[in-house]
Amino acid sequence: MGNGEEQQGESLLTVLLALGAxxxxxxxxxxxxxITGSAALLSEAAHSVADCGTEILLLxxxxxxxxxxxxxxxxxxxxxxxxxxxxxxxxIFTAGALFSIYQGVHVLTGHPEDHRSPLxxxxxxxxxxxxxxxxxxxxxxQVRAEQAKDRLPLGLYLRRSDDPTVKTVLYEDSAALTGLLxxxxxxxxxxxxxSPVWDGIASLLIGALLVVVAYFLGQTNKxxxxxxxADPRLVRAIRGRLEQQPEVxxxxxxxxxxxxxxQVLVCARIDFVDSITTAELERACVRIDNELREEFGDLDxxxxxxxxxxxxxxxxxxxxxxxxxxxxxxxx
Length: 332
What we know:
By secondary structure, the chain is mainly alpha-helical. It folds into 2 domains: 3-226, Alpha-lytic protease prodomain-like (Up-down Bundle), CATH 1.20.1510.10; 232-325, Cation efflux protein, cytoplasmic domain (Alpha-Beta Plaits, 2-Layer Sandwich), CATH 3.30.70.1350. It is built from 10 helices and 3 strands; from the N terminus they run H-H-H-H-H-H-H-H-E-E-H-E-H. It has a 3-stranded mixed β-sheet with strand order 1-2-3. Helix 9 (278-295) links the parallel strand 2 and strand 3. It is elongated and about 85 Å long.
């Protein structure tokens, strides 16, 4: 099994564990919220409903993004994972955040429910914390394994990761545990003080937490859908390999784009040495393509275009994209 298939299987396990945990706690939170009259618990129930919808969308993302390329989609369906993950972020916002904010405003504007049987709420929150913790542990385990493989600090890895499914589960479960603590605090302070204001504040904080999570996940998937550059380290390594080829004079331009998780499209505009013949150029392109694919397993499609480095229109286009970072001359 290749690295892509292993990661796909690991991502599927992570999402399924998260879905199982959320289905269990959604029912428990909803029942406890109705029994206790706690707005924070009802907000947490809405949070879990949103999480269940998120996991279903992520399962759809994993299944559809794995379809092979065809005539209508010659670059494959990898970006479907980004589309469905974007919908998951929207689901978190609409089904979780908005309901939680509504519940908080409803309580704080003078429409609180009488709190009853708080012990039921505490028990449900404790059980939910354990189940969400199990799901989060799996997400952290996968993220740590992939982070170690990429040899990046955690924050940088999360920003550069091209697998939004695992990141969504990680953020979602982290928010879930934080939300449970907020609900516990709201329930406890309401019981101690007799004021429902704390319950309303907890509900508002849960809603705000979900807004933040939905925003960051939405930004991540927006950038991937637009067409983000591959990992800069991979881009530098590809450029280095191209510059080492005896037939290559200068790499004029190097374009990369993520077309899916572990799928990178490469377009290299190269000024080849003047002494090369047409037949030698063709053989060189085939050889370079094979060498790049063998060394960099994420490369999905590779295009090499012979260009003159001094063409004024091309120079301006490249300079407009990269500015002072552009290197038009052959390195020493």
